[in-house]
Amino acid sequence: MWKSILGGDEDQQDNILDDQEGLCAISPLQRVYGFAACMVSGVVCMFLCFIVFAKPIKFGLLFTFGNLLAVGSTAFLIGPRHQMTVMLDPGRVVATSLYIGCVAFALICALWIHNKILTVLAIICEVFALIWYTSSYIPFARRMISNVTIHLFDTEI
Q1: Membrane-crossing residues (predicted)?
Q2: Which pTM was predicted?
Q3: 1-33 confidence digits (pLDDT tens)
């Protein structure tokens, strides 16, 4: 009796640890639901920001929050630790840094500078950084984007 109260029964302790780990795990269907909920919430925030376009603080916050929700939604599918590992891959670290820098720049323009023109420019930069970041997940997408910009603007990214 005392052995089980004081924690001497190792089999029982293993079962308790297994149960606690099971509480944090979510099923594949729940992962898809979480992904869909975050993605839809992000897209809704990004579209709602155009209602408050005249107010740079609300515009910048809504758009950036929606953008982060949409990007972060993939953490439900692959897990947050794996997503961070993938984001910091050597081939993707520049795109990730550029995206995070543009997000920070947009928030600074909206929260501290309070300039509508700078906020809109920061949001445009954020969109292009998101496109570049997202294209790093698609094979040959960056090369295709570079070829299109070469043909359209006679310059290379």
Answers
A1: 32-53, 59-79, 91-113, 119-140
A2: 0.74
A3: 444 444 454 444 444 334 434 446 889 999 999
